[in-house]
Design a protein that fits this description.
Radius of gyration of chain A: 14 Å
Number of strands of chain B: 11
Distance between the termini of chain A: 31 Å
Number of strands of chain A: 11
Helix content of chain B: under 10%
Distance between the termini of chain B: 41 Å
Order of helices and strands of chain B: EEEEEEEEEEE
Oligomer: heterodimer
Number of helices of chain A: 0
Helix content of chain A: under 10%
Structural class of chain B: mainly beta
Structural class of chain A: mainly beta
Number of helices of chain B: 0
Radius of gyration of chain B: 14 Å
Shape of chain A: globular
Largest sheet of chain B: 6 strands, mixed
Order of helices and strands of chain A: EEEEEEEEEEE
Largest sheet of chain A: 7 strands, mixed
């Protein structure tokens, strides 16, 4: 149990569906991340939120829409996806208060395996 | 542009062997380096975090070292067990204020019983 919970763990959707991935962290962190992991590729950073403000959007297509209502919750809304979007989507969180020792450690959830038919 | 490389991509060893996994990075100006373990279809589990001012960190049978000047980190696993079979990834964070962690592609380890 890492303190970062993702739901659902598995999702199958058609190209015309709309679905959402959810992430919740219980670590008191201020930053939350969405990563995409495809086979044989390094992790790809998609979005970063710091204190619920978006700080990074790594040129992600608009069919992926993030939402961060507070520092503990992060969503990824999915619509009109393509089969190549099938991947493991990982949520992570960290603390970025530079005055504290040991900050910057990244904690991941178990991931949501997405299959687009 | 920072690049992180992990060689080899895959490794098989007999149970009980001590082994070393390698992580190289091209820009020595890093804030920290983190080692992760990933089991198939699962998320990443943090193993060890080394701050830029540190030379090594230990946790149980794991020891990670950091040599910033040469752009290298190693993860040493003592007395390997079949349960250590997983993919091991390293990631560098370039600064305290950045949110970008640069990941390697990982080393897939198989420990044979």
């Amino acid at each position: 149990e890492t303190g970062v919970t993702q739901t659902p763990r598995h999702l199958v959707m058609g190209m015309t569906n709309k679905k959402s991935l959810k992430c919740e962290q219980h670590l008191g962190h201020n930053a939350m991340y969405w990563y995409k992991q495809s086979a044989k590729k390094p992790l790809e950073l998609m979005f970063v939120y710091n204190f619920k403000e978006q700080t990074e959007n790594n040129s992600v297509p608009s069919r992926f829409s993030p939402e961060c209502p507070n520092s503990s919750h992060l969503f990824l809304h999915l619509h009109t996806l393509q089969p190549e979007d099938s991947a493991l989507y990982l949520c992570a969180s960290s603390r970025t208060d530079v005055s504290a020792r040991g900050t910057g450690e990244l904690f991941f959830g178990e991931g949501s395996r997405l299959t687009v038919l | 542009k920072q690049e992180v490389t992990q060689i080899p991509a895959a490794l098989s060893v007999p149970e009980g062997e001590n082994l070393v996994l390698n992580c190289s990075f091209t820009d020595s100006a890093i804030y920290n380096l983190q080692w992760f373990r990933q089991d198939p279809g699962k998320g990443l589990t943090s193993l060890l975090l080394i701050q830029s001012s540190q030379r090594e960190q230990t946790s149980g049978r794991l020891n990670a070292s950091l040599d910033k000047s040469s752009g290298r980190s190693t993860l040493y696993i003592a007395a390997s067990q079949p349960g250590d079979s997983a993919t091991y990834l390293c990631a560098v964070k370039e600064g305290p204020g950045t949110y970008k962690y640069i990941f390697g592609t990982g080393t897939r380890l198989k420990v044979l019983a």
